[in-house]
Design brief:
alpha+beta; Immunoglobulin-like; Jelly Rolls; five-stranded mixed β-sheet; 32% strand; elongated
Length: 1117
């Protein structure tokens, strides 16, 4: 607060010494005092009660009869009066009488001499005059009539040496009889033993530096003037929040106020912001009133629209600002700022400043924020000073051209119209051009104002009531025009699509005009109803397409409906896609009930309309908004409002500049202090750079930057944080068992508010750590938002979570027979009752053995053509096998093998299944398989070529697991016997293994002809076919990639025994070359490495080489 004090006194009058703020606005204390006086009856009663309490103890010295001190009419006759505040009852008898008193004054002490009511006339007011003289009795030091309460007098004086002072009292009105009181007080000695003490906190913690002051009610005047209060004690709280004030005795109102403006709610004792509700603290002489505590409420900081430092533009490197600056306009990049100022900063201005200071001329300057240079733009054509003010500049996107309007008639030659004209100054060439000229080149015959420039300065839009700027201007009102400064052509924008002029005004008064950087779109307010949908009869905002002639009403709701009241002010984004406007309409958005002029945004592309001047929670503005601006990209809208409802912390009671982020739906205050408190005076006229990065405005506030002491209106530029954060991740391509990814977000401006991420398209989650143990391939999206509401574009990374490093299990023996035994031991560790026996010397009869092995639940063991190796016989013993199926006739497995097996298992327990060739053998093996399954057979089978082994064996894990029999086809079709066997077995669906060279299209046709359905699993070679069969087994048959088997595709034995083993384990098998890993096999391993924990190699290094095994390991990394 700003409180005035009487000249030279130490006990200032509160009621009479209020100052005024800038522009004649009363200080808040003055308003508060007026409020206090409205409650005068209540306060008077309180004062009267207090007066009665104190009258008894007042230091009165009564005088029995009038004029009792006579003779005292000269200094020589002066009576001595004490300086302890004793009140002397005195009188003046004749109308020309006066009284002299004298008192001793000490060096450096401040003394107060004051008249007041006589003890017998406490409610009486007399108009006294009081003069203080020096020790010689003739040198006048102070002279006062009405500085005291009502018409009483009061003077103060502080001597520089010990001395005697004389006071003379007379009656100003010349009354014949006058009773009065007189006292002299040594103010420097008052209150030394009378105290008020307490502690100030924020409700929890002590607050230091809080200003504590009092006003006290002097009982001498309580009855005479209850509204009259004196300033009492003053001090600040210590580090522990305590304070102690020396005060005069009396009734005190105690006030607590933070030295930092708008940090805490100022309040009176006890816990009120209303003077009229304050609890008086009564303290007697030499007493201490303790426990006068306060708990101040913190004022929330405003939500800043700019979180970066604000700089002052209206400064000169060496010349102080002695006058105000205002109305900034920014170039596209924010480097150049044009503004109005009364300061003389240019050499020409300085040279002529002395003669101009008295008439307050305003000029247009351009500040280069990069170099600090100031350039005067309002210069007469002959280089002299303009002879009139200049107003409201605009600046081209590149900062080269500056537009403004002025009544000066020497800015260009032959300006003889005697009114306002619009001008454009080329700062490079130094040439000034009048914009509002006729086709003949003369200045127009009417006012022209509010000029706006296109981005390159080629086009200038303005409004004018001149009638000679274009032909056929007959409407006798204000119109909007666009001047092509390059071609010299002027076009009237305020006409309908057919070119017909309107009968009503467009632009004019305070109604602004705006133009897009390319000059195509012009925005203005008009009373003309040119849009077919404009039927409301009010002024509306329009956009004119200068290329097509189309005129569109833009002050509409989202459905295109008209507003129900006037629009005022409109601005347009650079591409013409968005406009902002102000309107009193209540029907443009839902829930507009505040009855105030609001700021709206309309998107011409989507048709949507929304309100910018509304709080984040939807609370409406409690006053109107105006002075709007829009950034070139249409993201930000600025406006001015004197409100309290748009955000917490807006407590200054002044106009503030707000910025609304259309993209983030976020409202902030621009005119804030470095610690985000609202400025301490009004701020106006926002202006943006293209991307809204920089916003200019002007302000009376001196709290926006440090060191603002000029007491003038200044131009500022704040930097908007419109740069989103940057978020990175430490994600790598693969993780074993668990992925833990850290996200790091940085934002050097407003700071990171939150980091978001989404895993595999799931729910959005906040945080900077992402963890998953789900095996497989994952996609992580992440982004951050900063404290200014900027949203980062999402980043995406992919990664894979693998199982722990794969375990490699070699299943191999000294030969193929031994390898089959190792496979049997691994797959059937607890034994099997039945085994399938096949020759290890050739493959044709064994191709269907895997399905049969699945049906009986046992392994496939290999024997020689004429004997059973002892190791195989031993494995049968380990398994506890009691039955064996032997595949093939005697040309494949001879009689000695049968004899040996019968001897071991019993003749009835050895069954040979064979036919005249491989095809018949396959049919019989399939038939036995289906017989064993009975009703459990599901009708599926494999059809593979009988010409080679690879495709049939690649399906052997699936044949074992699902018990699907294998039939063999010939070169062109299945034999009729095979077809009959399939029908007899109840086959319904055939899966063809291999490409058309292996199982021909004719074969497929023949199967279809037999009533079967058919599908094919094929690849470019046996390795790709095996890979596709394996994928089919995982996706369609319930098998798994984990535990995958790798067998050579260049020989049959290992795959023949390994297939059933893989089927038993619930896994699949891939084929490889002996020395190199095929691409199809490698790719399939890599694609499914997250699921593969164990790998089985069938056969020794001669079958699956070390190079292949290493390549498998590499593929799984």
């Amino acid at each position: 607060m700003h409180r005035g004090t009487a000249s030279g006194n130490g006990g200032a009058c509160f009621a009479r010494c209020m100052g005024t703020g800038r522009g004649g606005r009363p200080d808040r204390e003055e308003s508060q005092m007026r409020s206090f006086k409205r409650y005068a009856p209540v306060r008077a009663l309180l004062a009267a009660v207090l007066a009665l309490a104190f009258l008894a103890v007042l230091p009165w010295v009564a005088v029995a009869a009038p004029d009792g001190y006579e003779p005292d009419n000269t200094p020589a006759e002066a009576t001595i009066i004490p300086t302890d505040g004793t009140i002397q009852d005195r009188s003046i008898d004749p109308g020309t009488d006066w009284d002299f008193v004298k008192f001793t004054a000490l060096t450096g002490h401040t003394y107060e001499a004051q008249t007041g009511p006589h003890s017998s006339q406490m409610g009486t007011n007399y108009d006294t005059r009081l003069i203080l003289y020096a020790e010689d009795g003739t040198t006048q030091l102070e002279n006062n009539d009405d500085a005291g309460p009502q018409n009483y007098s009061r003077v103060t004086y502080t001597p520089s040496v010990d001395t005697t002072l004389y006071a003379r009292v007379s009656f100003w009105n010349g009354a014949s009889v006058g009773l009065y009181g007189l006292r002299v007080r040594d103010l420097s000695a008052i209150g030394g033993t009378t105290h008020i003490t307490g502690t100030v906190t924020d409700g929890i913690s002590p607050l230091s530096g809080i200003a504590v002051s009092t006003w006290y009610h002097d009982p001498w005047f309580a009855v005479l003037d209850p509204s009259y209060w004196f300033t009492g004690g003053a001090g600040t709280t210590a580090g522990d929040g305590t304070y102690s004030l020396d005060v005069p005795p009396g009734s005190h109102v105690v006030y607590f106020e933070s030295a930092e403006e708008y940090a805490y709610v100022a309040e009176y004792y006890d816990d009120t912001t209303d003077w009229n509700l304050a609890t008086p603290v009564i303290v007697g002489s030499d007493e201490t009133s303790s426990g006068i505590d306060a708990a101040l409420t913190p004022i929330p900081r405003a939500t800043p629209g700019t979180l970066l430092p604000t700089t002052r533009v209206s400064v000169h490197s060496s010349i102080d600002a002695t006058r105000g600056s205002q109305d900034p306009a920014l170039s596209a990049d924010g480097r150049y700022v044009a503004f109005v100022t009364g300061n003389d900063w240019d050499a020409l201005d300085i040279a002529n400043g002395a003669g101009r200071a008295s008439d307050g001329e305003q000029d247009i300057y351009v500040k280069d924020r990069g170099t600090g240079a100031l350039t005067l733009a309002s210069v007469a054509w002959d280089g002299s000073e303009p002879n009139g003010w200049s107003y409201y500049p605009d600046i081209s996107g590149d900062g080269r051209h500056v537009a403004f309007y002025s009544p000066a008639d020497n800015l260009v030659p032959d300006d003889t119209n005697g009114t306002y004209d619009t001008f454009v100054r080329d700062l490079d060439s130094g040439e000034t051009t009048c914009v509002n000229v006729t086709p003949a080149g003369s200045v127009g015959n009417g006012d022209s104002q509010w000029v706006k420039l296109s981005g390159d300065g080629r086009y200038a839009a303005f409004w004018s009531n001149a009638s000679d700027l274009v032909p056929d201007d007959n409407n006798d009102t204000t119109d909007v025009f666009v001047r092509d400064l390059q071609s010299g052509e002027t076009t009237r924008a305020s006409v309908d699509a057919s070119g017909t002029e309107g009968a009503n005004a467009s632009g004019g008064d305070d109604l602004r005009v705006d133009i897009s950087p390319d000059g195509r779109y012009v925005a203005f307010v008009t009373d003309n109803d040119w849009d077919p949908a404009d039927t409301n009869g009010f002024a509306d905002a329009y956009v004119k397409d200068m290329l097509t002639g189309e005129v569109t009403c833009v002050s509409v709701d989202s459905a295109g409906g008209n507003g129900d009241d006037n629009a005022d002010e409109v601005v347009i984004s650079d591409d013409g896609s968005r406009v902002a406007f102000v309107s009193n309409a209540t029907n443009l958005v839902a829930n507009d009930t505040n009855g105030n002029q609001d700021t709206f945004v309309h998107d011409l592309g989507t048709g949507g309309t929304w309100r910018a001047s509304v709080a984040a929670d939807g609370t409406e503005a409690d006053d109107g908004s105006y002075d709007i601006a829009i950034s070139g990209d249409g993201r930000y809208v600025g406006f001015v409002a004197n409100v309290t409802s748009l955000m917490n912390g807006d407590v200054n009671g002044d106009e503030d500049v707000f910025i609304y982020d259309n993209d983030a739906d976020r409202l902030g205050m621009v005119s804030v202090t470095p610690d985000s408190r609202c400025g301490n005076d009004e701020s106006l006229q926002p202006s943006f750079s293209y991307d809204g990065r920089f916003v200019g405005f002007d302000s009376w506030a001196d709290s926006l930057i440090a060191g603002d002491t000029n007491g003038k209106r200044d131009v500022f530029v704040s930097t908007v944080d419109n740069v989103p954060p940057t978020t990175t991740s430490n994600a790598v391509a693969g993780y074993v068992t668990t992925a833990t990814i850290s996200l790091t977000a940085t934002d050097t401006e407003s700071g990171v508010a939150e980091t978001y991420h989404r895993l595999d398209g799931g729910a959005v989650t906040t945080g900077t750590t992402v963890t998953t143990s789900t095996l497989g391939v994952h996609t992580l999206s992440f982004w951050s938002v900063d404290n200014a509401g900027n949203i980062e574009t999402s980043h995406t990374v992919s990664f894979t979570v693998y199982a722990a490093a794969a375990t490699y299990v070699p299943l191999q023996g000294p030969d193929r027979y031994g390898t089959a035994i190792e496979i049997s031991k691994a797959g059937w560790p607890t034994g099997a009752g039945t085994v399938v026996v096949a020759t290890g010397e050739n493959w044709p009869d064994a191709l269907g053995g895997s399905a049969l092995a699945g049906a009986v639940g046992g392994p496939v063991l290999l024997v020689m053509g004429e004997s059973v190796p002892a190791s195989v016989s031993a494995e049968m013993t380990r398994l506890g096998a009691t039955k064996a199926y032997v595949l093939g006739e005697t040309d494949a497995i001879g009689a000695p093998v049968i004899t040996s097996l019968q001897a071991k298992l019993g003749a009835a327990n050895v069954t040979r299944i064979g036919g005249e060739d491989r095809f018949r053998t396959a049919e019989k093996v399939a038939s036995e398989t289906v017989r064993l399954l009975g009703a459990g057979y599901d009708g599926n089978c494999f059809v593979a070529t009988g010409g080679t082994f690879a495709d049939a064996l690649s399906a052997s894990p699936l044949a074992y697991a699902r018990r699907w029999p294998v039939y063999l086809s010939g070169p062109t079709s299945v034999a009729s016997e095979t077809g009959s066997a399939m029908q007899a077995a109840g086959v319904k669906n055939c899966i063809l293994l291999g490409g058309e060279a292996a199982v021909t299209p004719d074969t497929a046709v023949s199967l279809l002809a037999l009533g079967f359905t058919a599908s094919r699993l094929d690849g470019a070679d046996r390795y790709e076919t095996a890979a596709k069969v394996a994928a089919y087994g995982v996706s369609n048959a319930g098998l798994a990639w984990d535990g995958i088997g790798i067998a050579t595709g260049e020989d049959f034995p290992d795959a023949l025994a390994g297939g059933p083993g893989q089927g038993k384990a619930g896994s699949v098998m891939l084929l490889t070359r002996e020395s190199t890993l095929p691409t199809a096999t490698s790719s399939r391993l890599t694609a499914n490495k997250a699921a593969i924990h164990t790998v089985r190699f069938f056969g020794g290094l001669e079958a699956v080489s070390q190079a292949v095994r290493t390549a498998v390991n590499t593929a799984l990394q």
